[in-house]
Amino acid sequence: MSIVETEVEKPAAQGAAMEITVSRQELVKELTATQSVVERKTTIPILSNFLIEAEGDRLSITATDLDQAIRTSAGVKVKKAGSCTIPARKLYDYIKLLPDGEISIKLLENHWVQIRSGRSNTKMVGMARANYPQVPEFPTIAVTSISAAALKTLISRTIFAISNEESRYTLNGALMVLKAESIAMVATDGHRLSFVEKAGEVLDGISGEKRVLVPRKALQELQTLLANSDAEKVEFADDEHTLFFRVGHRTLSSRKLSGQFPNYEAVMPRDNTKFAIVRSSELSGAIQRVAQFADERSGAIRLRLESNELKISSQSTESGESEDTIDTPYSSDPIVVGFNSTYILDFLKALGNEGEVRLEFKDSQSAGQMRPEDPDAEYKSRYVLMPMRI
């Protein structure tokens, strides 16, 4: 189900007189925020356009690829209210090249749009506003306010574990779990699973538990919106088919992923009693060095824990062999486990390669687990890794 249905034809006169003046700086900022959603290679030409609507003293800009949409706005001088659609890439590239100052945008006949700035005068070929798809409106009920900082952290600690395989549809996003006093996110590609939770996050309007699957593309857009906003809260809402995130004056709507996310609680190791604690930066450095000599296809490295040492090694017939040793308190039986080096580095990078991590094992055939070693941490992270035969 697409989040957008094509609109009923509107009278041709609608928006036929639009004329506005806007600051170039403001316009570039908002076009930058929306242009990433625009379809580059679309079979539906109108999707390559921005929808521009002027009313009161606001200019609203919308972009959609039918799976998701971004709507933003800017303060403008509206001489004549109306709307038009303009080729997104061409408009964005052109406006960026103009000097700072006022820009006037005027709709002409046959959907042409005139853009004037100083001594520059350009006319662009637009398309009929009536053909632009209807983008769903942000719901007015059941809206939850989420901390922007929390959402940013949750996404950065899970997005890398989302599956790239299109056939594994329910794994092409992250599961967001909202409770009255906590928020969590989990993602898996079948080889590894990343879970992060923030307790003490009071979410109004949530009773019991609410679970939603957020597509990877929406999480990427949300990451960008959060990085370019100083909003402290994100308003979240959903309906039967669509997820909505409002960050300041910008709204992202996305088609929901349907289907059943795997039972992630069942995957979490319960009896990984052998563990070592090491500095994230030290572990990351050692793995990066050793991984240079791992098999190129599998990226497999070997972790060996024995008498107060963690040995990290790899070998391949093409490039040779390498070993690094890290001192760590350990007195249990020796254990050797193989893992994909990239998977471990992804997690350490998401933690900023800071602090200490705990590596937990049961045996060489069972899933290993990693987590930050900080009992007072604001975020509880767990990272589960399937072992490799090496």
Defining key terms:
3 domains, eight-stranded antiparallel sheet, DNA Polymerase III, Chain A, domain 2, elongated, 7 helices, alpha+beta, 390 residues
Average pLDDT metric: 92
**Percentage beta strand:** 35-45%
Based on secondary structure, the structural category is alpha+beta
Count of all domains: 3
pLDDT below 50 for ≥5 consecutive residues: which ranges? 4-15
Strand order of the largest sheet: 6-2-3-4-17-16-15-10
The CATH topology of the largest domain is what?
DNA Polymerase III, Chain A, domain 2
Number of strands: 25
Helix content: 10-25%
Largest sheet: 8 strands, antiparallel
N-C termini distance: 44 Å
Instruction: Give me the Rg, rounded.
Output: 25 Å
Subcellular location: Cytoplasm
Family: Belongs to the beta sliding clamp family.
Keywords: Cytoplasm, DNA replication, DNA-binding, DNA-directed DNA polymerase, Nucleotidyltransferase, Transferase
Protein name: Beta sliding clamp
Describe this structure in words.
With 390 residues, the chain is an alpha+beta fold. It folds into 3 domains: 19-131, DNA Polymerase III, subunit A, domain 2 (DNA Polymerase III, Chain A, domain 2), CATH 3.10.150.10; 144-264, DNA Polymerase III, subunit A, domain 2 (DNA Polymerase III, Chain A, domain 2), CATH 3.10.150.10; 268-385, DNA Polymerase III, Chain A, domain 2, CATH 3.10.150.10. Helix content is 17%, strand content 41%. It contains 7 helices and 25 strands. The strands form 4 sheets. An 8-stranded antiparallel β-sheet has the order 6-2-3-4-17-16-15-10. It has an 8-stranded antiparallel β-sheet with strand order 14-11-12-13-25-24-23-18. A 5-stranded antiparallel β-sheet has the order 5-1-7-8-9. A hairpin with a 3-residue loop joins strand 12 (182-188) and strand 13. It is elongated. The model is unreliable at 4-15 (pLDDT under 50).
